[in-house]
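Two records follow; treat each independently.
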Amino acid sequence: MTSKTITLTKTDGEFEPFPESPPREDMQNWNYLYSRGQAAGLALHLGDSDTTTVGCEIPVGPTLASPRDRRIPDFMMSRDSRPDLISEHGGYAIDRQGKPPDFVLEVASKMTGVIDYTRKRADYERYGIAEYWRFDPTMGEYHDAALAGDRLVDGIYQPIEIEWLDESHCRRYSEALGLYLCWEDGELRFYDPVGESYIRTHYDEAAEREAERSRADREAEARREAEAEIQRLRERLAALGDSE
C-alpha cells in the first residue's frame, strides 16, 4: 500500500484539533448501535481501553494539517492506538496515531446512504482503513446492499462476499474485529465464533432479567398453589377426623 507523504510546516502543538461537527439529524445510530447497547458491548469485547480506540462518531482524518479532510464514521475501532489523544485532537488523526483505524462501520440513513458507498468508501480507502462495512436495515433501500464490507488489499478495497443463510439472515466474518457481522431481520448483531455466542448487549441483559423475573413469578405461583393444595388436604383430613 502506498500513501501520500504530507509535509508539515508547524509543530504538533500549533495545529488546531478537528473542527466540531453539528448534531446529527437522523436516528439510525441510536436505533442500531446505542439503544440495544451494541457499541458498549463491542467496546467491552474488543479489549484494552488504553490501547484500543473504540467509539461512535469519532472524526477520522489523515492529519490535523488538513482538518477538513475527515469523515465521521458511525463506529470505528483501532488496535495498538492512542485513545487518550482523541480529546486532544478532536478525533482520530492518522499521522498522530501512527496508523489508520482497523475497522469502520456506517449505518444507512435516507440522508447519507448513497454517500456511504460512494464518496465515503473512496475516502476510507484513501485513508488506508483496513475494513469498511455498511449496514442497511431496509435491505438496500438506502445502501447498495443490506450488508456490505470491503477489505483493503494492496491499497485497494476488495468486496467481502456476504453469506446469505436465508431470505432474512446474512453475515460475514470481519478479520479486524474477529467477529461475524450479522444482518438478522433488519437488526445488526455481532457473533463471536470463539465463544459461540452473540456479543452481549444491554438489551440481552434486560431480556435475561425479564426472563428471570418471569421464572421467579412462575415458581412463586407454583409454591402458592402447592401450599394451597396442602392446606386443602389438611382441612379434609381434619374434617374426616371430626366425623369419626
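The next record belongs to a different protein.
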Amino acid sequence: MLAAALVRARGEGEGALDAVAGVFPPAAPLADRLDPAVAVDVLVDFSGVGGFDRALQECLARRIPLVSGSTGLSPAQVDAAQRAATRIPVLLAANFSLGVALLRRLVASAAAALGPDFDVEICEVHHRAKVDAPSGTALALGHAVAAARGQNFDVVARFDRHDAPGPRVEGEIGFAVLRAGDVVGEHTVLLATEGERLELSHRVSDRTIFARGAVAAACWIVGRSPGWYDIADVLS
C-alpha cells in the first residue's frame, strides 16, 4: 500500500504540490515530509539531485531501505549513499527497466567473451527535454563493459571525438548521444571488429515499465540486510 507521496514544500518549487495532486489516492496523502506516525517499509525516490539528500536522511532516520532512481548525483552524494548502505539497504539504479538490467548482464558477458579485438560504442537516444548526457543507463552499460574487461572506466571512456581527431584508440569505450522529439529511451551497445559486429539494444515505448520495475525493487528489498544493491539483483 502506498503510505504517502513526498513532494517539495510550497515555495521550494512552483506548483510542486499541484503538479502531482490527484495522482495519488486519498489514502496516500501528499506531504513535504514523512509523518512519524505513518508506518513505512521502504522509500522510493525519483526526486533528482535536489531531493536525494533529504530522501536518504529520511531513510536513515527511520532505518528503512532506500530505492532511488535519481541520476546525475554528485560523487559526494554517491559516497553518502554508500556509507548509508552500512546501516540500511540501498538500491540505486539509473534505469528501473528489468530489460535494461538484463541488457547489462548480456553486455558484460559479450565484452568479456569477445575481448579487446572488438571495439565498443554505446549510443543512446532520448527526448529533447532530457538534461543529463550521456544518460545514466548509457554510463552504467559502459561501466559494465569496463568491469568485464578489467579496465578503468575513467581512462577508457571517450565522450567527445571533436577535440581529439585521429583513429580510434584501442580499448576505448565510445559514447554517442542523440536528443530528439519524444523518444522515451533507446540504448544500443555496438561491439565490432574486422568483418563482423554485434548489436545489443533495448527500446522503451511505455514509461510505466520504470514504475513497475521500481515497485518490484521496493518489494524485493524489504527485509534485506544493510548493503549496496543493484536493480540486477532483483532479477535473481
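Discussion point: Confidence is low (pLDDT under 50) at residues 12-24. How would you locate this feature using only the C-alpha cell line?
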